[in-house]
Structures are given as C-alpha cells and as structure tokens.
Amino acid sequence: MSEKTGDELPRTLEVLWGRRAGRRTRGPAQALSLDRIVEAAIAIADTDGLPALSMARLAERLGCATMSLYRHVANKDELQMFMMDAAPGPPPDIAPAPADWRGELRRWAVELVAVYHRHPWILHLSAAGPPPMDPGQLAWMDAGLRALGGTPLRPREKMSVLLLVMHYVRGDAHLSSNDLRAAPSPAREPSPAYGALLARLITPERFPALAEILDAGVFDERDGEGPRTDPATHFGFGLDRILDGVETLVRARAGA
Amino acid sequence: MSEKTGDELPRTLEVLWGRRAGRRTRGPAQALSLDRIVEAAIAIADTDGLPALSMARLAERLGCATMSLYRHVANKDELQMFMMDAAPGPPPDIAPAPADWRGELRRWAVELVAVYHRHPWILHLSAAGPPPMDPGQLAWMDAGLRALGGTPLRPREKMSVLLLVMHYVRGDAHLSSNDLRAAPSPAREPSPAYGALLARLITPERFPALAEILDAGVFDERDGEGPRTDPATHFGFGLDRILDGVETLVRARAGA
DNA sequence: CTTTGCTGCGTACGTTATACGCGGAGCGTA
DNA sequence: TACGCTCCGCGTATAACGTACGCAGCAAAG
After folding, report:
1. Is residue A121 located within the same domain as residue A150?
2. Chain C nucleotides covered by protein, CB below 7 Å
3. B70 CA vs C6 C1’ separation (Å)
4. Residue-wise DSSP of B93-113
5. C1' nearest to CA of B54: which nucleotide?
6. Are B120 and B239 found together in one domain?
C-alpha cells in the first residue's frame, strides 16, 4: 500500500524502527496510543503474569473496548513483540573497547539478569518467537558486544561468547523466577520447597549422583537472596566459569 | 481420597513415579492407555508443532472422543508433564566417576542438544512449568552429574556446572530450532535469512558493534549443518569455553 | 441378581483471539 | 459553508479452545 519498492519490510518492523510515525491528520484525535497500550500490557504481565494478559483484560484496564486495540496493533503477537522491545529499557553504558572486558561483560550480565527478574514473561515470549529484531533487544546485544570490542577474538567468536553469556543468563533467570515465587502458576500447590519433594522421590539406587547432591543440602539453600553479583551464588559461580573459559582463549590469542 | 497419611504427593507425581499402577478391576477393559495418549501427543507436537496439539486433535488421532482423554489425564498441563517425562528417552550411559570428565560431559551435552532438536517443543513447555520433577528428566541430570563424579568439585559446584551446561544447551537448541526452519510459526514471512533483515535495519552509528559482526558475515553462515560436535560451530565453540572454565577450577582444586 | 465402581462420551459453558462492518468525527477541498 | 474522504472507536459474531458435569453401559464383588 504505502511503498511498492519490492523489498518492503514487515509492517511490525516498520513500526518498531520508527518509520511509520505521525501521519494521522484526518480523523478524530486518537484517545488510544501505541505507547499507552504497550505500557499497560507490560504492567499486566508484570503483576499478574503472562497468562493473565488477554486482549479483553488489557482493554478493560485501558477503559476502551477490546476491538479498539486492533487499530494500533495488528494482533497479539505483534503486541508481544512491542512489549519485548520496550520492557528491557536501555542497556548499561559500555565503552566501545574497554580495557577491563571481563568486568564490563560481567556487569552487562548482571544487569540483564535484573531485567529478566523484573519482567519474567520476557523469557516465555522470546522462547516462542523468532530471534530478536527489535531495537530494544538489539541495543542490549550491541552493548554486550562492545564489552568484547578490545579483545583479540574474531567476530564470530565474539558473537558466540555473547550468546553463551545470554543463554546462561536466561537459563538462570528462568530457574530463579520459578524458584523464589510460585507466582505465574495458576493453582499450584503451596510448593513444599523443590528439594523436599525431590528428597521423597529420589532413591540412591536409581539416581546416585542426584542423591549425593541432595544429601549435601544443595537444594535447601535459599540462593538468590543476596546480590547476584556475589560469586558465591549459583549465578555468580557459573558466570565466573564462563569468563574463565573466555579469558583462557583471550590470553592464548594475545600471546600468539 | 486414597491415602490420608498427611504427606500425600500431588497425583501427577504419583503417576509419574509408578505408584498408581494397576488397580482397575471393576470396569470394562480400557481401550485407551496413558502410554498411547502420551505417545500420540508427542507425535503431534513433533510433526505439527506445539500449537497444533489440542485435546480435540489428540482425540481425533486416537480415534476417541475428546473427553475420553480426561479419564487418563487430569488436564492438559499434566499431559504435558507426561510428555516431557517420556520424550527425552534414556540418557547416555556414563560411569559414576569417569577419568575423562570433560569428554563425558561434552558427550552428554551433545546428546542432550540432539534431544531438543528432535523435540523442540520441550523447550517451550519447560519454559512455562516448574523445575523438572519427573524421572525422565531427572535421569538426564543424574547422568550429567555422574560425569563430574570424579572431580574435586563440591556438590554445590557440580550442580552449578551442570546447570550452566544445561542452560547453554537449551539456549543454543532454541536458537537453532528457530533458525533452521520457520516451522511452528503460523503465517510467518518467507524469512529473508535473519542476517539479511538485520543488515537493512542496523546502522553503524546506532549499533556499531553489531554492524561489525554483521559486516563480517557472521549471520550469513549456515551453521548447524555439520555435526554439532564440531568445535568450529557456534555450539561447539561455546561448549569448549565452558569446559575450559570448569577445567581451570578443577585443576586449581586438584593442585591445592 | 444386585450393587458398585470404572469406562467412554455427549453436551454445555466460559474464555480466548479476531474478522467484519457500522457510525461518527474531523480535516482538506470545493 | 458544505461536501467527502479518511481514520477512530466499537458492537457483533465466529471458531477454537480447555474442561465441568452427568449419563449409559459393562464387569467384577457382594
């Protein structure tokens, strides 16, 4: 409709990247705006969980009719892409090629896990959709890559390292968001503390290694209360292992 | 109803762990069985994707009425837990304390990624539910922990290392399952190869680090065709970084 | 034989996303 | 000033979904 240049972007991306802004002059002033819709949707997902986010509930919260939303959003999938773009906020400021790449990458990871902690639903959404193509998430990737800017790694390796850290952050955030609270789960049991349940199911004959872990009380610990920067937490420990492995390669490259 | 010992397990877990087997004597021989249901559900999710798995479709495939399923399965969530228990199959055989912990852990990771490749829907399901409590998934965790059995790591550290590897495997499997095929996505565009799309959106001024990666052609590569054991793939590279980091700690512990 | 408990299943309901089309509001132009 | 075009908000309707409820029949227990 708009342009027939042959290589038109999907509508969603055009909106996401700002080409599509103001050109509504004809009709009545719009009472709804895309920003208000996305903001409200994020608020619902934050407080009541992702399953509670329906178009009807969203409209109710905004004081409009359900179908009014579809004037600003093509469908629910598109709305969710907008949510994922807006929710993370700006990434930490990282210099293009910092001397302390390890410290900067660590800082980036810690702030990213905080994002997932604030908006756990991002994990569920990005688990279902295509790889990120919105400026919000790409800005985070760019910041993470900047931390590696000064290292002698090849571009492909930088990307692999960043994905490695991202995967770990996401995995840990997912686990801890399910551990600490039984929030977004409808009609879940009072949850007798994972470890206690496992203790009643696992027999040393069948799962010897797990039984050993359980006996050591690993699952009883209430991890995640202290700051996640702490290397003593599960998260900090794993992150340091990753950084150690990357540092090994960086040093080998720098020495050669 | 059955037992009032005070500490009764959730029904789902009782079925999952085998306590609940045969005690149907009264009625007619059951034409449906839990195993058949779960098997058919897995088949649907494998071929047509998770969104295509509805109770109605499942019943149609089994040649029974929709509501008949509920005689064997409490609800859809429970069915999905059964699916996640059955789909992975048995983990690789790993000795209790292998000398080559690194090789064994690597083998475990490679086989696990193959599981996720075969059943991509496991990623979506486990992203929504509680931490795994079924014997199927716990057997995998036990096998992974066995690989670390001979190392001087503390129990808590073993668990952290295993989670680290699991998170990475899941993350990579998720990415590659979305990359290679546009399968479970309804009405997705022909997908002009992620990298090509990014190239039209990313400007070096706004995303300098990403632009550099893109210029290097990192996203153009058709990764994932070769065997995932290959250290040259994204997956193999990241996995080796992890193992390097763990090895650093193992050596430090052994030397001290 | 009667009773009891389990099977499969038909019906019905509430919730979901969303296709379609109407009425009205305001700006551009005549 | 008046017309018309365009865009907004919304009411209605539909198809698919998960599943609560209760009935009919069959087989073993009494």
Report:
1. yes
2. 4-11, 15-21, 24-28
3. 13
4. P--SS-S-HHHHHHHHHHHHH
5. D17
6. yes
In a domain, B39, yes or no: yes
Whether the per-residue pLDDT at B14 is higher than 70: the answer is yes
Q: Which residue stretches of A54-207 are H helix?
A: 55-62, 76-86, 101-118, 121-126, 135-147, 155-180, 194-201
- Domain end: A42, A57, A86, which one? A86
Looking at B62, B86, B110, the residue that finishes a domain is B86
**For A106-147, how does the pLDDT look when each residue is reduced to its tens digit (9 = 90+)?**
999 999 999 999 999 999 999 888 889 999 999 999 999 999
Q: How far apart are the first and last CA of chain B?
A: 57
**One domain for residues A114 and A231:** yes
Taking an 8 Å cut-off on Cβ atoms, the answer to whether B145 and A212 are in contact is: yes
Please state, as a whole number, how many other Cβ atoms lie within 10 Å of the Cβ of residue A245.
23
A65, burial (CB in 10 Å: exposed 0-12, middle 13-18, buried 19+): exposed
For B182-226, how does the pLDDT look when each residue is reduced to its tens digit (9 = 90+)? 333 333 444 557 888 899 999 999 999 999 999 998 887 665 555
For residues A148 and A104, give the distance between their C-alpha atoms in angstroms, rounded to a whole number: 9
pLDDT at position A5? 40
- Torsion region of A63: left, alpha or beta (phi above 0 gives left; psi -120 to 50 gives alpha): left
Q: What is the pTM of this model?
A: 0.91
- Which domain range does residue B74 map to? 11-86
Answer yes or no: do A69 and A174 share one domain.
no
Distance CA B14, CA B24 (A): 16
Residue of chain B minimizing CA distance to A139: B207
Q: At what angle do helices A76-86 and A34-48 cross, to 10 degrees?
A: 80
User: Are A133 and A172 found together in one domain?
Assistant: yes
Dihedral of the alpha carbons of A210, A215, A220, A226, in degrees to the nearest 10 = -90
CATH number at residue B78: 1.10.10.60
Rg (CA), chain A: 22
Structurally, how many domains does chain B consist of?
2
Helical ranges in A181-207 per DSSP H: 194-201
Same domain for B140 and B174, yes or no, is yes
